[in-house]
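Incident log, structure service

09:12 report received: a user says their structure output differs between two submissions of the same chain.
09:20 pulled the input from the user's history:
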Amino acid sequence: MPPVNVTYDDRIAWGSRKNYRSNCPYCSIRVHGPGPGGEDLWGLLDTGADCLMLENDVARRLGIDLNNCSKIPVTLASGMSVSMPLTTVDVTIRGKRVPVDAIFGITGTTLIGRTAILAAIDFGIDIDGWLYRAI
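09:34 re-ran on a clean worker, output below:
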């Protein structure tokens, strides 16, 4: 199958305000819980993570009871396997709202995993920054 050429809508420059002043591909997202409103977060676009990965405090603020979520085995980057709560949430990425699986229990940086990225945007990287097109 021949490669597909993608024409991106926008570029987010490395080190810019839109990129959390980082040289990594950060993105501002909004995670929506079962109630009104949502949680605005910065997340790292991480094609090595399968799902959206969030801290437990985000679930609490969104009104998600992690005791009622199914648990799945997750292999962390360290190679350690742990059981973590999983549920579906809506997330808005670069203006596109999509339902995605979210795993809770990480500490630190929100990870926007491959399934969330592919549901919302075409994603690319070059020497000047990261590129996207809403799909």
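09:41 both user submissions now match this output. Likely a transient worker issue. Closing.
09:42 reviewer note: The radius of gyration is 15 Å. The chain has two helices and ten strands.
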